[in-house]
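Regression check, S-adenosylmethionine case 289:
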Amino acid sequence: MTARRESVIEPGQTDLSPQAFERLAQYITKELGIKMPEGKLPMVQSRLLRRVRELGLPSLDHYAAYFFDSPNQDEREHFINSVTTNKTDFFREPEHFAFLCGTVLPEFSAGRAAGRRFQVWSAGCSSGEEPYTLAMVLAEYAAGDAAFDFAILATDVSTRVLKVAHEGVYDQAKVLPAPLELRRKYLLRGRGENESLVRVSPRLRAKVSFHSLNFMADSFGIRDAFDAVFFRNVMIYFERSTQEQVINRMAKHMAPGAYLFVGHAESLAGLDIPFRPVRTSVYRKAGGV
Ligand SMILES: C[S@@+](CC[C@H](N)C(=O)[O-])C[C@H]1O[C@@H](n2cnc3c(N)ncnc32)[C@H](O)[C@@H]1O
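Current build output:
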């Protein structure tokens, strides 16, 4: 154990060589679609440092050699968990939820076939804040329309964030962007040593199913035809050609006229895809309207 500790990186020994970075960068782009220009070297380095320490390896270059020479599923998972960017929030980009309630849901209710549930996909859901925001908003809408029901699929490639999402436990500070009334209704306060935490209520959690999914997979293994897809702040990390490929694949799982929400910093302009813009960062699939 001591020998292992002694071999761990010393300050100044942490640099990832450009060659090793290039190899890791190519792997990240091929496996995850995430572009990795040279400028990302310090980020990759700092993200992998913890794992290098856990493994007791002497340097990041040793880690790169270890990663490629002895590939195993477990290390691949650690690697993906380390290099993905998972920043998210409750009620992030709130105009999308206002548009959903004010336009998309009333439209769905008006044209709904009997017994049809509103199906939403939170694609790249990170630690759950986005799908649980959707769950709160849709549950509120359902409270005013007895015939309305919904289901949410939430997927991500990182098993680390999916575990957090599945547990649905957050620091109180994290849920503050949610309106007080919704927090009171849908979040349970921790007691004793968990006083600073809240848990998403079981009835809300029951509306969301979490699965691992990589957008680079040839098939998504999804049978549903979604009425809305939230694909926000994910494709900003992808090459244009990858964005086009993923959105075309996604479109196959969307109903005609379904809505696609992307991040405010993202645009689908110029891509060869079956969507037309509706308003800033909201698109609609061809057909149905
Ligand atoms: C910045 S978060 C965005 C979370 C949420 N959609 C939001 O807007 O707050 C991006 C998420 O996309 C996931 N991701 C990145 N590449 C992916 C891929 N190839 N397949 C599936 N998920 C991916 C990351 O793991 C991360 O959790």
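Comparison notes: Confidence is low (pLDDT under 50) at residues 1-7. The chain has two domains: 2-83, 95-285. No diff flagged against the previous build.
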